[in-house]
């Protein structure tokens, strides 16, 4: 037992002798400078590692939020991310240069402290953990958790200047990497080799035929593809059907108006509908209903929130981020002259992609004739909904509703009984509501049109 303990003590003494540095060297100015330099190099490695993770973790919503807040670094971030290849090569060049410098500097420090015979071992067991923990894992973990703060406060001041400084080296690396990549994998694929939307639609149709994808999933995929090309005007509630609150109304009238229309947000106007003051929220009205005594002391102006508006050209897919960014469920659509065109709601956007959220058990206002060739429909019915219901394909480059198509073909103020022909279809005005076409009869084929003519003449007599 004593022999065993003596051997352990001897091994311990040998270990201490191996790891004990040359203490006389620790006081040398050159070594102190190198240690401080090593600390700075590790910090630099952390900055470059966090830069890569933070910048490429920024979402489109993060960038839009910074832009809306007029953040001073917003334009710089957009500029950097517009050229991702230039950015990543610059960051990697900086990171590799610093890591090489850190490894070389640490080797010199260890040679001074332990001699050349021991320095190799210490470089392996000291430098690798230092770079891994403090130069890679820790900064990247922090960056991926807080990409906006890291990008704006730490990364931008460094990377903005580094990109200019490293330009010659970046150009050289870029050219060499392009040649190596071309040698290994061939020329870069041209846009003609990329899967286009129409090809993707065909692929989805083929998958549906095999039974691996249902018709509902297919419709949802197609709607998502269409959302990027569809303007909000095609899914809006038109101005003629929008509820409005007069800015002069008393609060009790506003609460009754909400009971009647059951909307989450209703726009408020002054003098005319194009002069928007803002929105009244159902939450605020509900709080007044729960505390009736407050109605006498509350003015309508106290309930108005700033107006949320979008242009006619806004795309449907952009509305998801827009509603989330503005914490809204509805927005008023304005034309180029500032006039109100309609209102788009979160429910409308969701229904465009996912279909009817609350399915109706019936389609009020739609009369299906016995011969399947004649339909009476509301004038404001969307063309796409009409096609889904009847398989009648009526298209128009500018209009989105049945009434819009009919009005455009008439090119004048419509009246009851007006008819127009569009390919094999006949559209007839059945009912007017002021200047608005309220109901339309759509018939297909000459026989259906002739039958309608006889019926219409008998009705007039």
TrEMBL record:
It holds the Pfam family CNNM. InterPro entries: CBS_dom (IPR000644), CBS_dom_sf (IPR046342), CNNM (IPR002550), FAD-bd_PCMH-like_sf (IPR036318), FAD-bd_PCMH_sub2 (IPR016169), Ion_transp-like_CBS (IPR044751), Transptr-assoc_dom (IPR005170). Transmembrane segments: none annotated. Residues 236-297, 303-360 form the CBS domain. It comes from the Bacteria. GO terms for cellular component: plasma membrane. GO terms for molecular function: flavin adenine dinucleotide binding. The keyword Membrane applies. Keywords: CBS domain, Membrane, Repeat, Transmembrane, Transmembrane helix. It is found in: Membrane. It is a multi-pass membrane protein. Residues 27-159 form the CNNM transmembrane domain. The keyword Membrane applies. Its main location: membrane. This is Hemolysin family protein.
């Amino acid at each position: 037992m004593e022999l065993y303990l003596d051997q352990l003590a001897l091994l311990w003494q040998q270990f201490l002798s191996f790891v004990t540095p040359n203490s006389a060297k620790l006081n040398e100015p050159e070594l102190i400078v190198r240690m401080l330099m090593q600390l700075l190099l590790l910090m630099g490695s952390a900055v470059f590692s966090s830069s890569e993770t933070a910048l490429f973790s920024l979402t489109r919503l993060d960038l839009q939020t910074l832009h809306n807040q007029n953040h001073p670094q917003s334009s710089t971030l957009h500029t950097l991310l517009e050229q991702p290849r230039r950015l990543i090569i610059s960051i990697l060049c900086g990171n590799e240069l610093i890591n090489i410098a850190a490894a070389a500097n640490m080797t010199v420090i260890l040679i001074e402290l332990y001699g050349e015979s021991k320095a190799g071992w210490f470089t392996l067991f000291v430098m690798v953990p230092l770079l891994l923990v403090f130069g890679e894992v820790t900064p990247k973990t922090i960056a991926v958790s807080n990409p906006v703060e890291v990008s704006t406060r730490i990364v931008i001041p460094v990377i903005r200047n580094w990109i200019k400084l490293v330009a010659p080296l970046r150009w050289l690396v870029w050219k060499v990497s392009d040649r190596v990549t071309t040698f290994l994998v061939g020329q870069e694929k041209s846009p003609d080799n990329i899967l286009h939307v129409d090809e993707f639609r065909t692929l989805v149709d083929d998958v549906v035929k095999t039974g691996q994808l249902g018709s509902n999933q297919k419709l949802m995929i197609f709607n998502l593809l269409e959302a990027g090309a569809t303007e909000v005007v095609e899914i809006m509630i038109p101005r003629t059907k929008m509820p409005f609150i007069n800015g002069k109304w008393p609060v009790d009238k506003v609460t009754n108006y909400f009971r009647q229309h059951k909307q989450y947000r209703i726009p408020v106007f002054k003098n005319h509908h194009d002069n928007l003051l803002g929105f009244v929220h159902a939450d605020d009205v509900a709080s007044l209903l729960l505390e009736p005594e407050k109605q006498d002391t509350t003015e309508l102006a106290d309930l108005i929130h700033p107006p949320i508006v979008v242009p006619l050209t806004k795309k449907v897919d952009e509305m998801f981020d827009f509603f989330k960014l503005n914490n809204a469920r509805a927005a008023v659509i304005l034309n180029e002259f500032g006039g109100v065109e309609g209102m788009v709601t979160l429910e409308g956007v969701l229904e465009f992609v996912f279909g009817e959220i609350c399915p109706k058990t019936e389609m009020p206002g739609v009369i299906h004739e016995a011969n399947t060739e004649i339909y009476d429909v509301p004038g404001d019915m969307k063309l796409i909904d009409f096609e889904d219901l009847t398989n009648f394909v009526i298209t128009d480059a500018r209009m989105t509703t049945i009434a819009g198509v009919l009005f455009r073909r008439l090119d004048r103020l419509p009246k009851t009984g007006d008819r127009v022909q569009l390919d094999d279809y006949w559209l007839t005005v059945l009912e007017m509501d002021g200047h608005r076409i309220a109901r339309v009869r759509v018939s297909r084929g000459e026989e259906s049109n002739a039958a309608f003519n006889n019926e219409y003449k008998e009705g007039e007599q």
